[in-house]
Structure formats: C-alpha cells, structure tokens
Amino acid sequence: MYHDLKERFWWYGMKRAVAEYVAVCDTCQRVKAEHRRPADGKTERTNQILEDMLRACAIQYGTSWDKSLPYTEFSYNNSYQASLKKSPFEALYGRRCKTPLCWNQTGEKQVFGPDLIRDAEQQIKMVRENLSVARSRRKSYANVRCGDLTFKVDDFVYLKVSPMRGIRRFNMKGKLAPRYIGPFKVVERKGEVAYKLELPSNLSGIHDVFHVSQLKKCLRVLEEQVPLEGLDVQEDLTYTEHPVKILETSERVTRNRRVKMCRVQWKHHTEDEATWEREEELRATSPRSLC
Predict the structure, then answer these.
(1) Would you say the pTM of this structure is higher than 0.70?
(2) Where are the alpha helices (DSSP H) in the chain?
(3) What is the C-alpha to C-alpha distance for residues 131 and 88, in angstroms, rounded to an integer?
C-alpha cells in the first residue's frame, strides 16, 4: 500500500502512518497474507556461492563456460566447510581428494582391517559432533528473534482459514480471498501453545481450541463485526467460495490453443475483486454460473 501511495502523496512520517493504519485495519488483517517464515540461511548461502562461481566461469570462459562445470563441481566439493571442519569429500572418504594432476601418483597402501574401521567410526563421530554444534549455534541465533506468539485471556485474535475454490487460474490461486476470520475472544489458555476461543453459534461444529500457529492478534476490535452468515467453515478450517455471476468473457491465446476466460464475481467479494477463470473449469465445478 505504501509503494502505491507514495507515487501520488507524501507527508512527514508517511511510511510509519501507513504501517500503523494497515496494522489496525480489520479488512487488511483478514485478507493480508502472513509473513513467510525466514529460512535457516543454508540454502541462501549455498546459492550465493554457486552463483558467484558460475558467474566467474562465465566471465572467464565466455560461451564455453559449461565446459568448466566439472572443475567447478570439483572445487566446491573439496572446499573447506566450517560446519564439518573439513571438506565434504574428506568427511565422506576419510582422506583429501587429489587433483587430476596427481592421479598418476600412488600413495601408501592401506589394508582393510580393524584400524581402518576404527578410524572411520572416529570420523563419523567427529562429523556428527561438528554438525550438532553448528545446529545448536543456528538454533540459538533463531530463538533470539523467533518464537511462538502468546495471548492473554480476553484478547481478541483472528482465526486462520483456507479458501478452496477447486479452480486455478493458469496455476495461480486467488489472492484476495479472506485468510482470517474474526476477531474472536480468547477465553482460556490450554497448555503452552493452544488457546480456547469464544466462537459464534454458526461455528459450533468446529473445535474451539486452536494451535497458536492458526491465530493472529487483533490490534483493534471493531464495534461492528463482519458477519459470517453464508461462510460455511468446515471442521478443518476450510471454506468453499462460490461464483455469483459472470461479468464479462474474453479469449486468451496460449502457445498451442485458445482459452475462453470468464471474469467471475465471487460470493463475499465485490466486483472490483472479480477474477478471471477458465470457462471449461467453471463448467466442471459450477455449471449453474454459466446459465
């Protein structure tokens, strides 16, 4: 919202004002997607290393960069890993890998026996200890900033639900479907990570105790609550969205065929939130909407 508004308006403290408004806006909190959990960083660092190595190969060798991929793989697999205290090859085979220039050199012969097995067991034990230390270090970093939410009795929270249409628009799901309903009052805490909510009568078929991951705190309780009539929430916290009418039709050309599209207005949504759906999928799921 801030990026859209700053193109036309500006005032002192605008970014903070917009963030505070969105935080207490009932509609925004029910529709807004939750923040993605931060990754552990391992994949991101690995991707950055591989990107840097491939970029260096492309700069050095130009169009023939793919011929250097075996050397890049060899270099990565034999690089020092802080979590292992050695290279992956050495951790796997118990010895350092020789470069292709040294393959013609013969080393000291070893006979398979108790000593070799004992050395392998010690290597495995050492690798496991190093990995355990690395995991504990990452866990301590994550626990500082991440943790389960806590609510107090008489607090108001939103309940997470999952909209189900059975329709995918070119493999894309609906964006404006409500992801939370409520707010509902917390009446009791069950254990460390579960809470009992005060649900209305039309949600009596749903168990009233929820895990903290299904809840989001409501910062401002409106005097007029959003009606839930017609929103049939199932026991698994899902509900089905039904089309109301077709506003217009169109035809899209793909690589191999023409696809007929319909702009559909959904129940509990305005015309501005209408979405484009495939006509053949509408006929299969909601044939009455095409009448």
Answers:
(1) no
(2) 2-5, 14-24, 26-31, 42-61, 69-77, 88-93, 114-145, 279-285
(3) 12
pLDDT at 195: 92
Question: b/e map of 256-266 (b: 16 or more CB within 10 Å)?
Answer: eeeeebbebbb
pLDDT tops 70 at residue 122: yes
Kindly list the distances between the CA atom of residue 213 and the CA atoms of 34, 142, 158, 161, in Å, as whole numbers in the listed order: 11, 17, 11, 11
User: Which token pair is 111?
Assistant: 């006979």
H/E/C letters for each residue in 141-179?
A: HHHHHCCCCCCCCCCEEEEECEEECCCCECCECCCCCCC
| Single-letter residue type at 61 | Y
Reading the block at residue 102, the tokens are 């040294």
Task: Give the largest CA-CA distance in the chain.
Answer: 83
pLDDT of residue 26: 66
- Residue tagged 């910062």 (tokens): 219
Tokens of 52: 């840097």
Q: How many CA atoms lie within 13 A of 284 on its CB side?
A: 9
